[in-house]
Amino acid sequence: MLRIVMAVVAAAVLVALYFVAVLNWSYSTGERAGWVQKFSKKGWVCKTWEGELALVSLPGSSVEKFYFTVHDDAVAGQIMNLMGKRVSLHYEEKVGLPTSCFGDTRYFVTKVAVTPDIPLGPGVVLPGQATAPGPAASAASAP
User: Fold this and answer.
1) Cβ contacts of residue 43 below 8 Å, gap of 6+?
2) What value, to the nearest 5°, has the Cα angle with vertex 73 and ends 25 and 57?
3) What is the DSSP letter of 46?
4) Stated pTM of the model
5) Would you say the C-alpha torsion 134, 137, 141, 143 has a positive or negative sign?
């Protein structure tokens, strides 16, 4: 009987160590920029924040979608506040999580930032927000 209990405890410890290792190790990290077009908290038992980022490389090109998961409620709140604006999401890719209880995707967003400038090509940038004319612009338009 003692051997069975010891075997069960050892198996539980190994499983716990596996999950700790997988959750603290990232296969890859990176940034994706675009517009968050869908973001919701979902799941039957384990509720996670799941989102969809629309990536557009050039105007007129087809839209690629980046699906992501957020665990931190503070980051989820920031994303909710920035919906409709172009953002950059920093993510960590986790490989080896056996269930969807940790999230529907392998990409876990850890930070979000607003990216106001939209690059159209090398050296060509479309500002995301209108800027007020400076002194040089107003002097040039004066008669």
Assistant:
1) 100, 101
2) 70
3) S
4) 0.69
5) positive
